[in-house]
Amino acid sequence: MDFLASVYKDDLLPDFNARFSFGGNSWSQSNYGMQGDRRSQPVAYPDQFSFANISDTRQLGLTESFYDKKINSLYGFLNLSYKDYLFLELTGRNDWSSTLPVETNSYFYPSANVSFVATEAFDLDSLDWLSFAKLRVAFASTAVDTSPYRTASVFGTGSFAGNLTVSLPGEVPPVGLKPQISDSYEIGTTLGFMDNRLNLDLTYYYSNSYNQILSSPIPNSSGSGKYVFNTGELENYGFEVQLNANVINKSDLSWDILLNYSNNKNYVVALDDTAEFLELANQWGVYGPSVKVKPGEQYGAIYGYDYERNTNGEKLVSDDGHHYLTTSEKVILGNATPDFIFGLNNTLRYKNFSLGVNIDGKVGGDVFAGSYAAGMYLGHSPNTVKERNGGGLPYNASDGVTYNTGVILEGVHADGTTNTTVVNPIWKYMGNFGSAWGDRTALVNGVMQKEYFLHTETVLDNSWVKLRQVSLSYSLPQELLKKTNIFQRLSLSVVGRDLLYLYQNMPDNINPEGLVNVGNGQGVEWGSMPGFSSFTIGIQASF
Amino acid sequence: MKKYIYIFLLTYIMIFISCDDGFEELNVNPQKPVTADVRAVYNGISSSYPGFGTEQTFLRNELLYSSTQLAGLSRKIGVDPFSRVNLFNGLYTKLANIRWVEDELTKEETFNVTNASAMVKIAKAYFAFKITDFYGDIPFTEAGKAYLSGENQNVHPVYDDSKTIYLACLEDLKWAVDNIVESPDNTYLSFAGTDAFYSGDMLKWKKLANTLRLRYALRISEKEPALAAEIISDAINKPLIETKGEAFVFDRIAANSTGTQSGSFRAAGSAGVRLGQTMWNAMSDSNDEDGSGIFDPRIYVYFEPNMDDKWIAVSQDFEAGISPIDEADVYDRNRIADYDHPTTHVNHYAAVNTNLIHSSTDRTPIVTLSEAYFLKAEIYARGIGVTANMTMAEENYYAGINASVDFWYDVVDSDLTVWNDPLSVNVPPIVTEIDNLLNHPQVIFTGTDSEKLNKIYEQRWVSLFWLPEEAHFLQSRTGGTPLTGTRGNFYRLPYPDTEGSYNLDNYNAAVTKMGGDESTIKLWWMK
Lengths: 543, 527
Fold this sequence. Notes:
The complex is a heterodimer.
Chain A: E1 2-9, E2 16-37, E3 61-82, E4 86-97, E5 106-117, H1 118-121, E6 130-144, E7 156-160, E8 163-167, E9 180-193, E10 198-217, E11 226-249, E12 253-270, E13 278-282, E14 290-293, E15 301-304, E16 331-335, E17 340-350, E18 353-363, E19 366-369, H2 370-377, H3 385-391, E20 393-396, E21 402-406, H4 426-433, E22 459-461, E23 464-475, H5 478-484, E24 489-504, E25 524-525, E26 534-542
Parallel strand pairs in A: 19-25
Antiparallel strand pairs in A: 1-2, 2-3, 3-4, 4-5, 5-6, 6-9, 7-8, 9-10, 10-11, 11-12, 12-17, 13-14, 14-15, 15-16, 17-18, 18-23, 19-22, 20-21, 23-24, 24-26
Helix pairs in contact in A: 2-4
Chain B: H1 2-16, H2 23-26, H3 38-46, H4 53-68, E1 72-73, H5 87-107, H6 114-135, E2 138-139, E3 159-160, H7 162-179, H8 202-219, H9 225-235, E4 248-251, H10 262-266, E5 273-274, H11 277-283, H12 299-302, E6 303-304, H13 334-337, E7 351-352, H14 354-358, E8 363-367, H15 369-382, H16 390-413, H17 416-419, H18 431-438, H19 449-463, H20 468-478, H21 497-502, H22 504-514
Antiparallel strand pairs in B: 1-5, 2-3, 4-8, 6-7
Helix pairs in contact in B: 3-5, 4-20, 5-6, 6-7, 6-8, 7-8, 8-9, 8-15, 15-16, 15-19, 16-19, 19-20
């Protein structure tokens, strides 16, 4: 249900224009889902999708899902302009959401946007290289509610010995839900040079988000594993540049370049008195690396077990020379946030041919390369064959024969002496890269001790430049088409996507974009599929 | 024109004036309750008395059967079993629910909550003993409080000294014994309707609480003899479990529950549990593979001979990393319908009885009548809190063996359709079989006092076949249970890694105090 009404008045005052719109909206969503699992039981009649159509309906695993949500909104816009160079836009919106408690379910959020076109306001004819200049400043507040059914804490149900059981939910729910608010500020300029053949757009933005509903893992000894709170505060800022150049502009030949650059940083300002950190990604539980962030830290920190070092910074090796000693807790080994990302699009047109070349890239930002770790510890990676091919040190194997397969783990023992023990190369690869394998307690003959695998060697800088797309198209000349009397327009095109990495630094051809998570939890790669290229041949015709 | 616009607007504003009409009703979860009945929450708490599925597979089958030598192993899963045990997390989840019920009981105005409080205290004590006996110092006074509000909430609980927890829990059990009202009228809040163990019979709960006092007082008797004596001298004269109907046993039939242990035994490594040399020596006086040396009729319930009907026991020295020596999936369900299934009944070593594993009438012993007798036998033999009295010790010793044989043959008797194939045993055992057992030189209560005490330990150990954690505690406390070779070095479970990740400061303090987090560290009450 919607309504929108507008009033406008030109020349409200001399050179002033005004427009005011006022509207309302009522949005609702109601879903009900039912799912049954026949649990490998045969169906009686083929292609008949009914719960009754399985041999033993008592075995039917039935689940239901519900979703009920309603938001009512009233909003208004006020647009004011003075002459053709000063513009002000104000908006205001009030939402009422069914997902929030009565005390906080009504929330207002405004925005304001001012822009000033300098090239219109001042006589800049003397600056003939400057064709357009605009400055804009904006503030916007946005507020969102949450998913349904969170205002009251609910219990879980089950049964034991034929009677109902009721238990506390699996997570500690937030108290006093409030709308999640984000205030963002932006300042930017758009400049046009040389009859707008060169355009530059610069933007700096900052946003502060508070009352965010976030969750933090807590120890099970507290009685729960997850703590949800409504007081998270996050900060985000960045700089974006867009440069658009029309390098050549002839009737038969043109070349346009579009260059994008952006860097973006996210920080956690505050969580909650009881929550220590946010866990954004977690591979293999406590044994593998995790991506987490504490208040004051930047998003994307990759935590893992590092070498234990002595005061001189030398790596410590176990007394038997088999493995490195590792830190007792996970420490920051890298950060997944890139320094910047960029894109470069070229469009070259010659007569009826058009060639597009798009390149994009990511500079900086680390990743835990899980597939690489697995390749190293399982001995699948070509990097592991050096010793096995006899390129190692003389090593006395268990069959009593000496082979040139041994290695010495570089480092010192706890007493400060240099490690000189030649060991089986499995310790170099499995020991240093085997983070997929779990806790070392299972390995040390019978004695259960806590030692963790090392993640240092597998947290790697992941930068790449990719030839994202090349397209070539040809439009048949109009004179030719006229003769056919069929086509108004006919063009042929060949497009290749994801063609190749012009630069990448991941080992063993691991897909640099094969991350387990996108969004906040990026920084972990594991078992990713190789990238693939695609080619399209197209014909476009108008009749 | 403008006039119409205003009218139009006003109409809509009227519609929207109650912008949140019906919202509260809309946002009520249709699937889950927002309120809970303490009785239903109590039922959820008591569902953890029989233990968790992972306990059987990873704790008992992977660790305890071989460490206690109640059985032997022919293969292992080969993964770190400690990380797979959800006993810690599971019991703390229950503790949170216990805190919730305790909180509700303090607010109860209509009913007298004495008996309800006593049952909750018993559960809290039982679970706390279980965690602390496996881990040592654990979070307790601040634990399970994530769901409480305000100052009472705690999500990073400190670790308490295990001994302090013992004292607090023994005090709670005493409170239950001293305060339970045996015949409550309807002014008492009752959990009877959801009591899967005693159906609200409060005298039985009193006896359970008092018997538990004996169990845990005896457990600390090596290190705190005076305290143990004080508790035992009080408890021994108060009601104790003395009939099999009073035993604390989860009986699936009586509790209207389904499920068997078979899943836990079918798991890859668990399939390696076999009759071990030590138990074989405790039940047979010769190595004759035809079983002619067998003198303990419980062997026919615990175990079955191998594929060729031979009694061959596996040695006790199987360790992780050694290649499997008997890979038969002898616990596969295909043996329910076909006892001699050609692909699974191919075990070289005698295995745990397939009927015991697949019987849906399985009884999970928690505190048995035989344990109550063996506790008293030890107490009288050693004179802890009572005057040493070998006659009383002997009486309770034999009663304990009898109660154990009786328990196991009740299990057989309750599901003869399953046990029929091949039923090579008399149900119940005939008098001469019992006499042969009790008068066997390895069993008869003769010898020096120390030999008699060791017989008490040995027979209690035999009776704990289906409760290997209690055998582990008995072994770790007394060192008096049968052993072939030397005892392994497993004493405790390392803390779950979530503690090191999410409760780091408190975890580090506990580990520093204890001198490490290894499974080889002995707990404070261990010998």
